[in-house]
Amino acid sequence: MTEIPELAQRLTSWLRKQIADDVRVEGLDRVDFGHSAEMLTFTIVAAERTDVVLRLRPRPPALLEPYDLPRQFRILSALSDTAVRAPKVLWLEDSGDVLGRPFLVMERVAGDVYEMQAPEGAGDAGIRRMCEGMAEQLAAVHTVDLTATGLDWLGDGRDHLDREIAHWADEMRRVQRGPLPALERLLAELRASMPERYPAVTLVHGDAKPGNFAFVGDEVSAVFDWELTGTGDPLTDLGWMELLWMQPVGITSHPAAIGFDEFLAHYQAASGITPRNRPWYRALNAFKMAVICLIGSMLYDSGDSDDERFLLNARGISLLTQLGLAELGVAEKLDDGPVLPSR
């Protein structure tokens, strides 16, 4: 990637066309966070100082393709006047002429993200409140008025479960290097046992997990990572959150964190949405996560990425697949096939 001084110069020239001739960029730095996009932080100095985050389209092939920044920008713009604490987006540059790839710029929201570590120094009541805040914000996502916000362009979402299964099945086949008996069996079982979708069609975040929430004190200040957002069955978000809630990292690893049943009760009270068929939704999301890990494994194996986290995550593919099968009542131990990088 271009060095910081040249990046600052390019951004300054571009921002002068957006704001004023006397604008300047200060404190430009790269952020090493997440897998799906590259990020830069800096301060725009004009009539006022504005701290911002620049989200740059990852170099293809990326972990999540197609990577649609204009779509993200449009969704985040629509959420600006809702109860969802999404970052405020400022500009979209989708030509790639400025930095070589498209990017969007959004205001930098104050707060701490606990991706791997539990909060230090937070009291038990504070940890409980953080968990409740995540439930409330997920409920806010699921109760967005799609028509009033103009988000009905995302579609009516009634075929969401079919599309979700088909998409991750296609992604699995796109990267697989040979037969994958365990994942193929999980896919077949998901299709055979798919429940009736939840009656309400809602906005669906697509990556609702504790590590995508920022906190100021014990209150949620922002919800991040809207790459997979669409409309459809809100219970898919609950299955993803439950799967990530199980992991012994971040806020939910704290002894004072509430259990997921209590999280769901708080969510239901805030949203009016009744969770059901939880094992199937956990299995669906185990399949989704296993496929995402498989994509990362193949990106690492092909040399398209040198991110060691993809190598680490690849070791979870077998566990995720077996977890999904167990949720659907399949105890048979099946071969994983070539899911680990050869290098």
> What is the CATH H-level superfamily of the largest domain?
Aminoglycoside phosphotransferase (APH), C-terminal lobe
CATH class descriptor of the largest domain: Alpha Beta
What strand order characterises the main sheet? 1-2-3-5-4
Alpha-beta content class: alpha+beta
CATH topology of the largest domain: Aminoglycoside 3'-phosphotransferase, Chain: A, domain 2
What value does the average pLDDT take? 95
User: What's the architecture of the largest domain in CATH terms?
Assistant: Alpha-Beta Complex
Q: Which overall shape is indicated by the principal axes computed on the Cα atoms?
A: globular
End-to-end gap: 24 Å
User: Which sheet architecture does the biggest sheet show?
Assistant: 5 strands, antiparallel
Order of helices and strands: HEEEHEEEHHHEEEEHHHHH
Give the percentage of residues in beta strands. 5-15%
C-alpha Rg (nearest Å): 21 Å
Number of strands: 10
Segments where pLDDT lies below 50 for 5+ residues? none
Query: Into which percent range does the helicity of residues fall?
Result: 40-55%
Summed up, the helix count is 10
- Please, how many domains? 2
Describe the protein.
The protein is of the alpha+beta class and 343 residues long. Helices cover 40% and strands 15% of the residues. The strands form three sheets. The chain has a five-stranded antiparallel β-sheet, sandwiched between helices. A three-stranded antiparallel β-sheet has the order 6-8-9, with helices on one face. A hairpin with a 2-residue loop joins strand 8 and strand 9. The model has no long low-confidence stretch (mean pLDDT 95).
